[in-house]
């Protein structure tokens, strides 16, 4: 078909990682990283071995949200991820100045992410990682397209706030993933409540024919935990955790 991106040929599967789960959003600031970190912790609390890769070149949040600092170690030709809150963690923000990453062009960003994916010791043959959560950059531009075509993603969860302007971008994100053959596991509504409204993401999920995974209300403890590097496993709705857990379990 004309104009359709080619099916992805992700040759860069990370070694000893059973499943790669992406967290995406159409817009920045909707809570994508917050969901990624807290979902990773919730999956870990269920007994899975979990890693998290912060691929958000525009604004890497993981160092703050998990309280990480310092470059990763290097051993036998591989980067050694940080360990925090039971997670193995790597962030584009630990490899470079955040201000550098922001001005990366598509190929550079994608090369850096590929390196972090494939040259990090996420797991070993004796102890493979059950799931690697990838916090993608927001939006549907060239950087994202290159990234998702190159990264071997098994599924994506899309985070949106309830307003129409955010949902329109979430829809575009879903379309982009659909085109490259990455299944959308579902939509999650963040900052649900009085100010932004409620229910928009559920209705959008119905229109798109994808699962609605649940709502996270505006909650000061989520913001405080994010700022202080203290994620909370209680913040992500049980339905979201259960569905992601099932997707991982189906593969393992
Ligand atoms: P994104 O990754 O989409 O850019 P973040 O996860 O960095 O968004 O969230 C942006 C800001 O909003 C952060 O300060 C975060 O702590 C806060 N935040 C996200 N979700 C919530 C929520 N449900 N309630 C309160 N604050 C939130």
UniProtKB/TrEMBL annotation:
Keyword Nucleotide-binding: yes
Positions of ATP binding: 26-33
MF annotations from Gene Ontology: 4 iron, 4 sulfur cluster binding; ATP binding; ATP hydrolysis activity; ATP-dependent FeS chaperone activity; metal ion binding
Biological processes annotated in GO: iron-sulfur cluster assembly
Family: Belongs to the Mrp/NBP35 ATP-binding proteins family.
Functional description taken from the UniProt entry: Binds and transfers iron-sulfur (Fe-S) clusters to target apoproteins. Can hydrolyze ATP.
Subunit description: Homodimer.
Full protein name: Iron-sulfur cluster carrier protein
Source organism phylogeny: Bacteria, Pseudomonadati, Pseudomonadota, Alphaproteobacteria, Caulobacterales
Residues of the full protein shown: 98 to 349 of 355
């Amino acid at each position: 078909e004309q104009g359709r991106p080619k099916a992805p040929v992700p040759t860069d599967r990370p070694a000893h990682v059973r499943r790669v789960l992406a967290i995406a959003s159409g817009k920045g600031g909707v809570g994508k990283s917050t969901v990624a970190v807290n979902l990773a912790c919730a999956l870990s609390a269920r007994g899975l071995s979990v890693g998290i890769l912060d691929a958000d070149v525009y604004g890497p949040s993981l160092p703050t949200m998990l309280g990480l600092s310092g470059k990763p170690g290097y051993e036998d030709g591989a980067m050694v991820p940080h360990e925090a809150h039971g997670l193995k963690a790597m962030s584009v923000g630990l490899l470079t100045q955040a201000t550098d990453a922001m001005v990366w062009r598509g190929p550079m960003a994608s090369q850096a992410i590929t390196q972090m994916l494939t040259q990090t010791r996420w797991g070993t043959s004796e102890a493979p990682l059950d799931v690697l959560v990838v916090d993608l950059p927001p939006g549907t531009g060239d950087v994202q397209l290159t990234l998702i075509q190159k990264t071997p993603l098994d599924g994506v969860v899309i985070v949106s706030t309830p307003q129409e302007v955010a949902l329109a971008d979430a829809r575009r994100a879903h379309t982009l993933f659909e085109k490259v053959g990455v299944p959308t596991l579902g939509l999650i509504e963040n900052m649900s409540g009085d100010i932004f409204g409620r229910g928009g993401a559920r209705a959008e999920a119905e229109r798109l024919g994808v699962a609605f995974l649940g709502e996270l209300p505006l909650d000061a403890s989520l913001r405080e935990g994010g700022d202080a590097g203290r994620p909370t496993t209680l913040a992500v709705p049980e339905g979201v955790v259960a569905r992601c857990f099932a997707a991982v379990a189906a593969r393992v």
